[in-house]
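Hey, why these numbers?
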Amino acid sequence: MLVSFLVLLGFGCLTGVTTVLFGFGGGFIIVPVVFAVVAATTGADAMHTAVATSTAVMIVNASSATIAQARSGRLHGDQLHPLIEFIALGAVIGAVAANWAPDSVLHVLFIVYLAITIVDSIARSGFLDNARRQGSGGKPLGRVASTLGGMGIGAVASFLGVGGSVMTVPLLRRRGLPMADAAAMANPLSIPVAVAGTAVYALATPAAAYPGQLGHVNFVVAAALLCGSLPTIALTKRVVGKIPDRIHAIAYLVLLVIVLIAMIATALR
């Protein structure tokens, strides 16, 4: 148990860094490690527990980062609304659907989702080079991108417990936002996904009940992760904006590749 706590604490610290720098409030770092810890201990519904716990941690991480980044002026209201409202609607649909999906299906879809995102960001212009950059405020989202795009982002993010950063950051990046601003915007956009997902997962009835767990959400694991992430968020916010834009974008993709490899490795066990 001590080893598990130290592992979760360490990855919680890493999550704090990625929350601020990349808008990952939890998902892409938390899901693989929680899956591994739960699979090695209780074993039951490991992927459902990982996804559900990720969404719970995301509420706190994304909210904390949003408050910090709002003070820095990196949040753009014209980009947030009405996208955030449609993301919230899609998040409810995705979370309900995830409760009915087999554990193995969630795992495979998580891997496929990551792979597509990485290839798309490399193959299409606008992410690494930000060729269509329109200035610090970016080009406003159109009606289709805000409605259908927002619902799609919310549904997929909630279904996989990833917060939506991997879809919102490339989207906002291609609208002309610098990487630091796009990552900052991902945090408030992740909050409705996290709230809707956590509510649905907490009300779910897992195959077996474990101490510290409500529905599929393991609050003991979440607390260990937050012990690492919250202090790190406070420290990391000081370096935002000091990283060169292209290097920031490349680092984002490198992190996705690392998580993809980790998820494939756990699938092959």
Notes: Residues 3 and 98 are 30 Å apart (CA to CA). The beta strands are 213-214, 217-218. DSSP finds eleven helices and two strands in the chain. Residues 46-71 form the longest helix (26 residues).
